[in-house]
Amino acid sequence: MLGIGVWRRARVVRGVGLNAGGYVRGVAGTAMRLDGAAQGGDVPSSKFTFTPHQGYMMDVPAPECEANKEDLLQYFTMMLRMRRMEISADVLYKGQAIRGFCHLYDGQEAVVVGMDAALTYQDLLITSYRNHCQALSRGGTVHSVLAELTGRTTGMQKGRGGSMHMYATENGYFGGQGIVGAQTPLGAGLAFALKYYEKPNIAVTMFGDGAANQGQLAEAINMASLWKLPCIFLCENNKYGMGTSTSRASGSGADFYKRGSFIPGMKVDGMDVLAVREGMAYAKKFVLEHGPLYMEMDTYRYHGHSMSDPGITYRSRDEISDIRKSRDPIDRVKSRMIDEGWMGVEEVKALEKKIKKEVDEAVKLAKTDPEPEVKDMYTNVYVEKAPIRGTNAYNGYIP
Ligand SMILES: Cc1ncc(C[n+]2csc(CCOP(=O)(O)OP(=O)(O)O)c2C)c(N)n1
Ligand SMILES: [Mg+2]
């Protein structure tokens, strides 16, 4: 065993504002959580088990953990918020308030919530275009994410990035990338910077099962291995790359976590926030000691690939509803809370109502907030007058 039970307790922070996610913004750049335990309250706690992780060239921790009521309530609330936000984005898109690309994250919420429960804002994060919920977790609000989607000045990037390009570098979030797999070497670069500056932190570079087949990922893993970078290559295996299932696209079959080949791998139930939290806490400690790790999150997306994909031509409605019934990440936390007697059905309903109201208010603002002005069209647009060789017959082109 390479060390178990690495669970960061939340620190006590008082007198500072909370954002919608219940995280404290900008305090020493850390995603500090205000939980009851940290505030000295008598918070009930219990032991939970989860689907065992699978390890490749490494040991994995036992599939059990301790979690308290405030932890679970916080994860439950955040996942509800994410789900409701994405459903609202779907409606806004269909009403043409959002234009262009839009990739929703519902179904996969436990990956981001569990991951950030084990990390801090000093741990750097970069991901693909399916990035709304990462933005929310790294200091965004439902309002700032939805307003970005509708192109308003109140959006995370002042309405200039849109669905695929949200960032919060002040919180260690290097955002969404539209080019499949492009973030994988960039994530290795972030890990290089952490190592170069001797920081006790890691970088996580998230990508999909489709991107996992790319050459640039293999190159990034190779360099990360040689330089022993504190990098987690985190594959969100949601079973499809656009309309292509993993069984049709991946020569190695289903075991993505073994695909780092010469670096260790760990497979985690990505539909269970506690499994993700525990896996990530262990993984962080592991990569700081041993170098890069390939993680596979076994997850599922409910929506189609993007808004132009109804999502039911290459898979059956039954497949989707079976996963919803048996593995839904929100239901899993909800039933744990109810089974422990930490929440009643009425309290759950009240919380769901509260989140719906919060998101509905954000939707209203996202529809009415001001759009960027034409005079700002070229703000942050850079033109370098550097000559590019070989672009015509007179500037260095050699046939
Ligand atoms: C280099 C490149 N090739 C193709 C595309 C078009 N494209 C966008 S998403 C996608 C599928 C990626 O699937 P996966 O990596 O599994 O991520 P998921 O969408 O499931 O999160 C493709 C082929 C692209 N954006 N960039
Ligand atoms: Mg995929």
Automatic annotation (TrEMBL):
<keyword id="KW-0670">Pyruvate</keyword>
<comment type="function">
    <text>The pyruvate dehydrogenase complex catalyzes the overall conversion of pyruvate to acetyl-CoA and CO(2).</text>
</comment>
<dbReference type="InterPro" id="IPR050642">
    <property type="entry name" value="PDH_E1_Alpha_Subunit"/>
</dbReference>
<keyword id="KW-0560">Oxidoreductase</keyword>
<dbReference type="Pfam" id="PF00676">
    <property type="entry name" value="E1_dh"/>
</dbReference>
<feature type="domain" description="Dehydrogenase E1 component">
    <location>
        <begin position="78"/>
        <end position="374"/>
    </location>
</feature>
<keyword id="KW-0786">Thiamine pyrophosphate</keyword>
<dbReference type="InterPro" id="IPR001017">
    <property type="entry name" value="DH_E1"/>
</dbReference>
<protein>
    <recommendedName>
        <fullName>Pyruvate dehydrogenase E1 component subunit alpha</fullName>
        <ecNumber>1.2.4.1</ecNumber>
    </recommendedName>
</protein>
<dbReference type="InterPro" id="IPR029061">
    <property type="entry name" value="THDP-binding"/>
</dbReference>
<dbReference type="GO" id="GO:0004739">
    <property type="term" value="F:pyruvate dehydrogenase (acetyl-transferring) activity"/>
</dbReference>
<dbReference type="GO" id="GO:0006086">
    <property type="term" value="P:pyruvate decarboxylation to acetyl-CoA"/>
</dbReference>
<dbReference type="InterPro" id="IPR017597">
    <property type="entry name" value="Pyrv_DH_E1_asu_subgrp-y"/>
</dbReference>
